[in-house]
Write the structure tokens for this entry.
Amino acid sequence: MYGRAFAERMNASYFDGRLAPAVLDRLSLLPVDREDARAFVERMFRLMHGAGFGASDVSVLQADILAALLSRLLPGNWEGRVPPITIAGRHSKLDQLVAQTAAEDRLPQTFIDIACGFPPLTTVDTANTLAGWQVTGVDRSLPAYLVTDSHGNYAVFDVDGRATYFQPLAPSPESWTVLLGDWEGSRRRFERLLQSLLAERTRLGGADHVEHDGARLEVHPTRAYAHDRLRFVARRV
């Protein structure tokens, strides 16, 4: 199926053919050879239709994100793993609701953010909103190592030194293409870089922050976000 044909089908099926031409143009760039990307977009539009969202609720920016970013973040691009990422402010309304409900019902001041992602921005937001609460972020994919290279890309690694996710620090279609055009090659490069930085770490006596030749290593990087009311646990729940 061609991208334009898929976009037109979504438009006819869920928006009565009323999507803006610019939105259709962006959606036509979706990599429709990826079954998981097609399924994600169709499920999203089906749910929007069922909830009463109209064509005017689909912005050009949203279509851009679906076309250019979605396929790069789905588990099908990461050997079935859900990438450990999140966005600041995503849970703000939930945090406000919890704070209000807790004040009314005198709930225990303990909050667990399951699958908190990395960087754990939503968990940090929660801890800031729920002042005085004990907050725990839990995610089986919390990285053991974070490496930033000299080209403005970062990668996270498990305890065995295997790169589980990487992306540009400033994502754009061009930077994603450069990094993921040779996915396996990029992973091997990051893993070699990690080994080089770990060797430098050993030479320096085991520091948790190492910089060498324009690259940077952080060991257990979630520690940088933790404090007396906020901790992180890497485990399956």
About this structure: The chain has a mean pLDDT of 91.
